[in-house]
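Notebook entry, structure prediction.
Reason for the run: the old model in the group folder had no record of what sequence produced it. Starting over properly, with the input documented here first.
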Amino acid sequence: MAPRASITTGILAVLSIGLSVAAATPAQAAALPAVRFVSASGSLPAGGGRVTIQGHGFTGVKRVLFGSKRATHVTRLSSKQLKVTVPAHPTGTVRVRVVTNAGKSPKSIVFVYTPPPVITSIKPGVGEPAGNVHIELTGKHFRTVSSGTIGATGVGVAVESDAKILVTVPPMAAGSYDVVVTNLAGSSIPNEHSRYTYAASEPWQLVDSVPGTADGDTEFFGADCESGTCYAVGDKTDDPSARDNVPLIDVEQDSGDWAQATVTPPSDPGAFKDAVLRRVACSAANTCVAFGSDVDWSGPAPVVQPLVAVGSGQSWTTVHPPMPADWEAKNRQPITDAACFEDKCAVVGWFRVGVGASKRLVIDTYANGAWVERSPALVHAAAYNTFDNLAVTCGSTTQCVAVGRNGRKQPIAIDIPLTGSDRATVKNLPVQLSGPQFNVTMDGVACSSAVSCVAVGYRFEPADDSEDDNGPPYAFFERYKDGTWTDHEFAPPASIASHHTSLVRWDFPSVDCVTGGTCYAVGGLETTFKSSQGSQWKYAATVTRITDAGQQSVFAAVPDPYANESILGSVFCGDQPTCVAFGYQGTPSIDGDGPLTDVTQFTVHIGSKDRPRVYSGPTFDSHHSDPAAVACATPEHCIAVGSHNVPDGSGTRSVAWIQES
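New structure, fully documented this time:
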């Protein structure tokens, strides 16, 4: 047996060893290295940069780790400072740690591997020189962005995500500037999508003196420009009750002044009865065609004749164009649209036949000073001989295309030859969206080339088995590309969808295309809208961009579409890079049934990559103001036309107006 003292000594020895280990831990901890600062917070994934690491305990350094990767070219400057080359590492966040003979530093300093930021879009990309607005940058690698510049001026940045930044725009002189943001790895490289433009103010002002509008009732319904000259068409009368309106055409001169054109009556009947021109279409070949109607009220029933004016400058002649053999003069507006390409034009319309509501097509073309009637031949089913909602556009000198709907409320396209003696031909358009196809309405059509067109419209899907318009509406567009029509459904913009309780309808009064590319449909989205007074019906103006590939993006066209009711009624693109749309906004009555007040005209300038820019026009002291059409002679000079009511004795009269940019 071992002596008692030996056992005690052994136990004490073990306890002594244990106490010795426990007592050494704080000392060891004090000897461990610690990283307190790294001179850079991040690097490109490729690494390679030199950084300084500060801390303490940098004695006997064995390695420096960035995550699991080992730094190279480690230089010990002192026990508190190292200089190393950052190793390559995949994108992500790592910890910087120093390993010495005493052990590994605790996890502390974060280091980020990230590529430089990339800007892919700026919305809006255009603003006023006054600045002080927010713009949204989208792209990638934004999470560590800390600063930015527009031109050489620093800007405030607010990082919302790795893909979105809000930037406060400073005041700057008019011009385009590169937007650059900087993250831990470096600065973004300027590209075509990262420029912000300070646009000089483009106010729209009323023309002080509009010829022919000083007395009586006057209205403008259409406008177009060609070769630098702009035209506004409508009608005027000294006494609205007399039903003796005459066509009114105003022409803008080279000096910028406006003059009233001379409009010669047709040889038959030899004088205007009750005539109006509702739209004008011009081409690059000094040819304009305005259309409307001429109504004789002297008999027991009105006799309606379609009326077409052809001319340019201040000299115009009018004709009653040729009509189908079974023409019956019953429709107040027998021609509904016109279009031209170079020296050739087409007009489309319809007329009623017999006691029923059958509506027969009217199609005439104009070339070399002569009119040719090209209404299509009738087919066996009566429903397929009824047409309305017609709109036409011309994409070449050989053919125009019109859209509308037939008696079965199906969308149709009409191919209209401009040469030879062939008649127009009608074909059904595809509408293969979900649900039954009832009550389609076609609003407009435009072509960006001879082989690329867009037609817009909407349809109602019945809520039951009837054909009533009692179900939800669907806005859609038909895309014509290389000989084939395809259908696509529009989706309301999220900013509007988040406010409305139900979609009532979505109108597209106008569509136009940039030559060779993108098309724009403008209009208004009618919804029941949540407000402090409960649900209200209200229109919110919209702009929908449709690319040549059929992609779409929808914008609310006013900064706050629910402060007022608003709608866009006309858009013009032509050969210019920026399209111009025209509409109005006003304050609705509380119950939604009364007239708008504080009616203000506004224009929307739409670029190919930017959100629309909105410019306010004059406010009319009137409950009714009708913005009718917009057209541009150059990207810098546009006109907008319409009419509004003004007090006149005990009543009101209509006065046509023109705005210019």
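Summary: Confidence is low (pLDDT under 50) at residues 1-24, 464-470, 559-563.
The old model has been moved to the deprecated folder.
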